[in-house]
Amino acid sequence: MPDVIIPGPAGRLEGRYSPSETENAPIALILHAHPLGGGHMENPIVDMMYDTFRKRDFATLRFNFRGVGRSQGSYDQGLGELSDAATVLDWVQSYNQGASYCWVAGHSFGAWIGMQLLMRRPEIAGFVSIAPPTNMYDFTFLAPCPASGIIVHGGADKIVPPDDVERVMSKVRVQKGIEITRDVIPDANHLFSEHQEVLETRINTYLDGRLPYVEDERKALAARGRR
What we know:
Elements: E1 3-8, E2 11-18, E3 27-31, H1 44-55, E4 59-63, H2 79-94, E5 102-107, H3 109-120, E6 124-130, E7 148-154, H4 162-169, E8 180-185, H5 196-210, H6 214-226
Parallel strand pairs: 3-4, 3-5, 5-6, 6-7, 7-8
Antiparallel strand pairs: 1-2, 2-4
Helix pairs in contact: 1-5, 2-3
């Protein structure tokens, strides 16, 4: 799991990269929570998601947004951070040019950035969004959502109330054949402090059921696009 330094739009970006041992393996990009709220790539939820995809033999990369850790630059209201994520995805794709597809996973602010990224990158076939901050940022850009994925939030989240997540996400339009799974973990807070094992289990259960069919889903969507 080597440390890497990636040239970014505002200077170097600090990351941690685990290459796959399988040719043409998929890519996973992991995004941390808000830079001004203590978010960084070593947060427990980010670490858990990184290990989850690494153990499934994805080429997996997590990194610090600009201004966090050894990453240069300063917080840019989400615009620069989205650019950071796109640049890092380009970097990992350059080392995995035969990758079959990509996934993006993010916590809180990172979930918001990840959802924006998937709207811009058709190679992203799935997402894991943990506690997306629907009460802080506009999610209407999901019009319609082009990839299936899972949204997990805590039933006792006082930062992003679960009712708000349900209200916003229940109205998101999706392309034909796309499904957004919503999962609430009772009594869990925004950081899933006492529920990280449960969170990990829920994510793995979803991936166990979804990953075997990703290639077929992408072929079906491509076929519909050609009509």
